[in-house]
Amino acid sequence: MQTELVGQRIKLQHLKVVMAVAEWGSMAKAAKHLAITQPVVSKVIADLEDLLGVRLFDRSPQGVEPTPYGRALLKRSITIFDDLRTSVDEIKFMADPTSGELRIGSTEPILAGLGAAVMERLWRQYPRINFRVVEADSATLLNRDLPERRIELALVPLVRASVPEDQEATILFQDRLRLVVGMKSRWAHRRRITLADLIDEPWCLASSSVGSLVADAFRASGLAMPRIAVTTTTAHLLFKLLESGRFVGHFGDGLLHFYADRFALKKLPIELPIAPFAVAIVTLKNRTISPVAQLFIDCAREVARPLTKRQSLSVAN
């Protein structure tokens, strides 16, 4: 069948049914979710398969699963609905520039620091903007949530320089990993410390790409890894444990700026033998972002500018 005729016969409701069946893995569950009958769902899928001349789902006693043809249709269906939603958001923003909605993904440490600072600044000027936040690790955000249009942009650390080919990164600033202790720690007031001095201390590490840099630092120094007493993805827990004075931990130098008034912490005077990492906003390539997303990017650059200037002065000195 000619592409034009296929386009005339496939409706948005058909694509919505396909997406629901794929999400729920069952015709019956999809029907319940869509508030229609199972025979209607089955007929839509059968009609689409007949129209396209391929099988979209494999059936089994355990449920249904998209075939490669089904996954191709799903990928474009997600794009269609996402672009439609973005168009509606853009129209709403044009009608009322003080409002809008943004779906953003970030890691917990960045979200609670830099992310919160950006949102608070935007709210002062655009009090009716709404944020829908997804919190996950960088790999999940870049490899699943962003390609599947669950979020419009990801605010993440980029330990490795590159992002997937279909994405592009706006670098906000370059950050360096610092070792951190609580002010009660016996190491807090030492002027000279080496990484080897801390080998017998209990450590708190983040289970993330940034946390993995600690292992890189020990490896580059020819040292074995110390005992990792706590592994966490939560910056608040990490800092509370460090405040006790019992542990050694880590955090990005620039990101610590957003936590300085919340916790009694001290950066140790150690330069780790590892390269800096970027903190960036990642979006899908060749996709027009919404006005609210552009506002967020512009505001994030403004919030991060003092960190960039501070880094430049540090390098110059």
Q: Helices and strands in order, then pairings?
A:
Layout: H1 3-9, H2 12-24, H3 27-34, H4 38-52, E1 57-60, E2 63-66, H5 68-95, E3 99-106, H6 108-125, E4 128-135, H7 138-145, E5 153-158, E6 167-175, E7 177-182, E8 203-206, H8 212-220, E9 228-232, H9 235-243, E10 249-252, H10 253-256, E11 265-267, E12 277-284, H11 291-316
Parallel strand pairs: 3-4, 3-5, 8-9
Antiparallel strand pairs: 1-2, 5-12, 6-12, 7-10, 7-11
Q: How would you describe the overall organization of this protein?
A:
The protein has 317 residues and is α/β, with parallel strands linked by helices. Helix 2 packs across helix 3, helix 2 packs across helix 4 and helix 6 packs across helix 11. The strands form four sheets. A five-stranded mixed β-sheet has the order 4-3-5-12-6, with helices on both faces. It has eleven helices and twelve strands. A hairpin with a 2-residue loop joins strand 1 and strand 2. The model has no long low-confidence stretch (mean pLDDT 87).
List keywords for this structure.
single chain, 317 residues, alpha/beta, 11 helices
Short description:
This protein has helices spanning about 5-10, 10-25, 25-35, 40-50, 70-95, 110-125, 140-145, 210-220, 235-245, 255, 290-315, and strands at about 55-60, 65, 100-105, 130-135, 155-160, 165-175, 175-180, 205, 230, 250, 265, 275-285. By secondary structure, it is an alpha/beta fold. The radius of gyration is 24 Å and the shape is elongated.
